[in-house]
Amino acid sequence: MPHTIVVYHSGYGHTQRLAQAVAEGAGAQSIAIDADGNLPEGGWEALQAAQAIIFGAPTYMGGPSWQFKKFADASSKPWFSQSWKDKLFAGFTCSASVNGDKQVTLDYFFHLAMQHGGLWVGLGHLPSNTKAAARNDANWIGTFSGAAAQAPADASAAEMFAGDLENGRILGQRVAQLAARLGA
User: 3-state class of 47 per DSSP?
Assistant: First the structure.
């Protein structure tokens, strides 16, 4: 199976829980960006060796956390050498509001992947947007460009909606399936 990395920052544990669901779906290794915006030792090397990279961060103030942005800025070395070119990329995010401008964060990830010459993988799952839909259905939020989750500001990571975690697994599975199909 192609080697996939889920690289993410989580402020309060919700994005970490979503990252775990994404990694489970993809059979991927996870790398957490720490509270100072740094990768652990060996993190850059692992990303270099990966065939697919899935970005994750909470949406704060209409975009990804500053810790993720620090990581993105630090990716200028692989950008300059185009060493991430033609890798598969995808992304996921979580915020307290149902909308919460999560699409801006997913767009940020998309543009970062495009800067690196990557190939973007969207969610590929229809939204649950009928009268019969329930909050725990997969893709209840209705995103297409990545996986999105909503966790009320007063809810713990353990209280996340099952459908949002399923979105993460669906995204991870799709990245893994496409990577295998492309021989990435």
Answer: helix
Q: Rounded to whole angstroms, how far apart are CA atoms 68 and 33?
A: 7
pTM of the model: 0.96
Per-residue pLDDT band at 183 (split at 50, 70, 90): confident
Q: How far is it, in rounded angstroms, from Cα 93 to Cα 146?
A: 8
The mean pLDDT value for 120-142 works out to 91
Q: Which two three-digit tokens encode residue 136?
A: 């725990």
∠ CA 57-62-66, nearest 5°, is: 50
Q: Three-state DSSP class for 90?
A: strand
The owner of tokens 């790398």 is 31
**Alpha-carbon dihedral sign for residues 128, 134, 136, 142:** positive
**3-state secondary structure (DSSP) of residue 147:** strand
Nearest one of 151, 158, 155, 142 to 106, comparing CA atoms: 142
DSSP letter for 39, please: P
Cα–Cα dist 110/115, whole Å: 9
pLDDT digits (tens, 9 = 90+) for 16-41: 999 999 999 999 999 999 999 999 99
